């Protein structure tokens, strides 16, 4: 009787069973190895991604301008600006860092992702967009009174997170010091060039000032952005009644800056849209309409028109402007302007929107300005990022006009 030599003997596993067992064993081994490799890769990639998110700082400048040494006050005293306290290290310069140079292709690939990563994008932010108050930064100062010498001492120390007022994405801040209600006599700190976190460490002495009159005054600090060729732009202010301060010793304060009460907050608003086309290397700016513009003429109205400047770094490249709307504080423009902007220049590009009041007999007045770039104020930066995130789509937003 013929017996198959490969036939399994009773009780022994068949060839198919052995083959399946071998396949399962090999599969399990490969799975273990792959899991180990994946875990190793994730650790390496995670570390590399973490390193790629390191940030860089902003250069600081310490150049200042001349200051008044003494001022005669109505009360018979004088105000003196002294040098920094001996033994203290001035903080005029912060560490300088530079962004790593990248190629054009790297810039094209990273712009959108970078803007999206920095963009607020939350539903709460969008809901509060129209009513949220802009962060104007904060200032540190100290104040005290010397009874023996009848001298009030005010020290301006530093400020943090100031908004950018210049088209270059920075500011040149300095501080004016008043003892209200006297506005004729003031003292000023030095100007800190291109610095949003300036250190002054300047001390001012109001000498020969009786304590009875000191407690009747209000210490008023106004932070401004210095402009060599035009009016200085107000950044924010702080006021503190001296009768609410313990002047027997130096008291140090951190105060949030508030909008300056010089009318800059009531200049009106402008609705405009931005449309970025990366394939055509262009941005289309549509000036839609304005509302509640400040009346600049004697008759209680204005003749507004809008200028649009394209800036690259610190240079003016191209200017466009709308027609003039006669005697209208709520004009509708609906005019579009196209600007050629290569992608590699987008980082250093700023669009300045200026609403002007036309005047035939004298110089045209500035009603308000808007600076649009990826490093301007919070509202402007959001608009810029939304434009980058939604290419070839018009993105409209209301903007508060600023001085």
TrEMBL record:
Chief place where the protein resides: membrane
Keywords attached to this entry: Calcium, Calmodulin-binding, Cell membrane, Cell projection, Cytoplasmic vesicle, Exocytosis, Lipoprotein, Lysosome, Membrane, Metal-binding, Palmitate, Peroxisome, Phosphoprotein, Repeat, Synapse, Transmembrane, Transmembrane helix
Any GO CC annotation of this UniProt entry: phagocytic vesicle membrane
Source species, domain of life: Eukaryota
Methyltransferase keyword on record: no
Region of interest called Disordered, as start-end residue ranges on this chain: 53-106
InterPro entries recorded: C2_dom, C2_domain_sf, C2A_Synaptotagmin-7, C2B_Synaptotagmin-7, Synaptotagmin
Pfam families xref list: C2
UniProt name for this protein: Synaptotagmin-7
Protein's organism: Sapajus apella
């Amino acid at each position: 009787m013929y017996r198959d030599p490969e036939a399994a003997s009773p009780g022994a596993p068949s060839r198919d069973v052995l083959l399946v067992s071998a396949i399962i064993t090999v599969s399990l081994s490969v799975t273990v190895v792959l899991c180990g490799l994946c875990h190793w890769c994730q650790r390496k990639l995670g570390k590399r991604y973490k390193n790629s998110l390191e940030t860089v700082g902003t250069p600081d400048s310490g150049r200042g301008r001349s200051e008044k040494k003494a001022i005669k006050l109505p009360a018979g005293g004088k105000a003196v600006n002294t040098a920094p306290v001996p033994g203290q290290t001035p903080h005029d310069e912060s560490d300088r860092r530079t962004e790593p140079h990248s190629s054009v292709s790297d810039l094209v690939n990273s712009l959108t992702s970078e803007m999206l990563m920095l963009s607020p994008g939350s539903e709460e932010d969008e809901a509060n967009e129209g009513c949220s108050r802009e962060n104007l930064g904060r200032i540190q100062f100290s104040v005290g009174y010397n009874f023996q010498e009848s001298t009030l001492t005010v020290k301006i120390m530093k400020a943090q997170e100031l908004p950018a007022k210049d088209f270059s994405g920075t500011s040149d801040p300095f501080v004016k010091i008043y003892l209200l209600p006297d506005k004729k006599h003031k003292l000023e700190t030095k100007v800190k060039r291109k610095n949003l976190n300036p250190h002054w460490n300047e001390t001012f002495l109001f000498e020969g000032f009786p304590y009875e009159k000191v407690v009747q005054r209000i210490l008023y600090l106004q932070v401004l952005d210095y402009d060599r060729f035009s009016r200085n732009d107000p950044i924010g202010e702080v006021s503190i009644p001296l009768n609410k301060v313990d002047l027997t010793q130096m008291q140090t304060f951190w105060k949030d800056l508030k909008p300056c009460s010089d009318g800059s907050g009531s200049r009106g608003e402008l609705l405009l849209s931005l449309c970025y086309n990366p394939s055509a290397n262009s941005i289309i700016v549509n000036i839609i309409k304005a509302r509640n513009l400040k009346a600049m003429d004697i008759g209680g109205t204005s003749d507004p028109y809008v200028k649009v400047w394209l800036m690259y770094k610190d240079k003016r490249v191209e200017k466009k402007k709308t027609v003039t709307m006669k005697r209208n504080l709520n004009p509708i423009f609906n005019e579009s302007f196209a600007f050629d902007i290569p992608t590699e220049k987008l980082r250093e590009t700023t669009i300045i929107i200026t609403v002007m009041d036309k005047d035939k007999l004298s110089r045209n007045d500035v009603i308000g300005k808007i600076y649009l770039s990826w490093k301007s104020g919070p509202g402007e930066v959001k608009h810029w990022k939304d434009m980058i995130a939604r290419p070839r789509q018009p993105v409209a937003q209301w903007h508060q006009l600023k001085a």
